[in-house]
Amino acid sequence: MKNNIKLLKKLNAFLMENNYIKEAESIRYLIKQAQSVYTIKSGDTFDKIGKGDPQYIQAIKDANPGVDPGKLQIGQKIKLPPPPYRPNEDLQPSSLIIDFIKREEGDFESEPYQDHQGNWTIGYGHKLEAGQVLKYKLDPLTEAEGEKFFAKDIEVAASFVRRNITVPLTQNQFDALVSIIFNIGTGSFFESSVYQALEKEKNLQKTKTLISSMVSVGDRGTGVPQRRSRESQIFGLR
Questions:
Q1: In angstroms, rounded to a whole number, what is the distance separating the alpha carbons of residues 43 and 102?
Q2: Looking at the domain 95-236, which fold is it?
Q3: Band (181; pLDDT cuts 50, 70, 90)
Q4: How far apart are CA 145 and CA 27, in angstroms?
Q5: Is 31 in contact with 5 (CB distance < 8 Å)?
Q6: CA dihedral 104, 106, 108, 109 (to 10 degrees)
Q7: Which of 86, 104, 179, 195 has its CA 20 to 30 Å from the CA of residue 215?
Q8: Model pLDDT for residues 182-233, shown as the tens digit of each residue
Q9: CB of 51 within 8 A of CB of 102?
């Protein structure tokens, strides 16, 4: 069963890459229908079985409507659906995009400052919570600490793409999305027309076009429009 699911995933990726959207959706349906039986072991919970992945945990609950997650018994059989389809789960931000983001964010800042939207920021574009501003005004951020913030923020953006984008991406497309999300945050990206075009409509060309126009009123007169143009170019590279 697992080998069959892997083959279906590869076929689905091939169809998506060649723009056979309807056919790919049919394959995805078969993947979703495939499931195996799992035997509960000592210490098992749906959270543990689902590896802490909210989407997968919910899929397990949906596949077992008559099972109480709080009353699992050793030896009990449950239906185990395949993990959510994530064709980009092995992608990592390239060294090129990491350097690109640092250049776009500007020089390292050891003390808090407000960006053009009024967000308190430090290091390489790291957003501060309200209670952190005074702390770093009194005790400036070291560059080593700034690198840790930067690495964490990069991973937040990359993880969002891996978990929420089911269109198979090239390295350049993945990199461009990581840069955008690093800059605007996961919430803003999730609500954007770019996300709609990419994930809901599966339209890569429209996505590229929308990236370059992904600018708010407050961004005008800053370097953001030029950054979006460059990210759009990266997204379109082969």
A1: 44
A2: Lysozyme (1.10.530)
A3: very high
A4: 46
A5: yes
A6: -120
A7: 86
A8: 999 999 999 999 999 999 999 999 999 999 999 876 777 688 999 999 999 9
A9: no
Looking at domain 37-81, its CATH superfamily turns out to be: LysM domain (3.10.350.10)
127 three-class SS: strand
Long-range contact list for 231-237, CB < 8 A, 24+ apart? 231/176, 231/179, 231/180, 232/176, 232/208, 234/97, 234/100, 234/172, 234/175, 234/176, 234/179, 235/172, 235/173, 235/176, 235/177, 235/207, 235/208, 235/211, 236/172, 236/208, 237/170, 237/172
Buried b (16+ CB within 10 A) or exposed e, 122-156: bbbbbebeeeebeebeeeebeeeebeebbeebbee
Q: Which residue has the tokens 């990199």?
A: 175
Domain with CATH 1.10.530.40 in the chain: 95-236
SS3 call for 112: strand
User: For the chain, how many residues are written?
Assistant: 238
Q: Are 111 and 87 spatial neighbours (Cβ–Cβ below 8 Å)?
A: no
